[in-house]
Amino acid sequence: MGLTLHPMKEIRVIVAGDHQAFVTDLLDRVKATGYTIIGNVSGKGHHSVHEAHFMFSEQESLEMIMTVVPEEKVEPLLAGLRPLFERHSGVMFVTDVAVSRREYFGKQPAGS
């Protein structure tokens, strides 16, 4: 018996550390079943190069928050993040992914 894959959406949000709680609170409100946070993210964007600084507080660093959700949760997340991105820098990526255990991501199998 092989694994069956189910379509989902992966959302990655990169924001200043002091906005991490805003993003994770939103994920909790839309009932994302979980998320992963990677701290001290470095990169280059249209503003400049941003380097991780482990010696400073997390508020001064960039954080990447990742989650996987059913497609119907994408629009509420976009709406919730809009005010943040209107006032502050940051980026969001939405990608099609497939998971083998959809019940882990808030989507119950048909007939349950």
Strand tally is 6
**Beta-strand proportion:** 25-35%
* Discrete helix count: 2
N-to-C SSE string, H for helix and E for strand: EHEEEEHE
For the residues shown, what is the average pLDDT? 85
Task: List the SSEs and their pairings.
Layout lengths: L5 E11 L3 H10 L6 E6 L1 E2 L4 E2 L11 E8 L4 H14 L2 E10 L13
Antiparallel strand pairs: 1-5, 1-6, 2-5, 3-4
Helix pairs in contact: 1-2
Walk me through what this model shows.
This protein is of the alpha+beta class. The protein has one domain (6-105): Alpha-Beta Plaits, CATH 3.30.70.120. The chain contains 2 helices and 6 strands; from the N terminus they run E-H-E-E-E-E-H-E. It has helices spanning 20-29, 74-87; strands spanning 6-16, 36-41, 43-44, 49-50, 62-69, 90-99. The strands form 2 sheets. It has a 4-stranded antiparallel β-sheet with strand order 2-5-1-6, with helices on one face. Strands 3-4 form a two-stranded antiparallel sheet. Helix 1 packs antiparallel against helix 2 (74-87). It is globular and about 45 Å long.
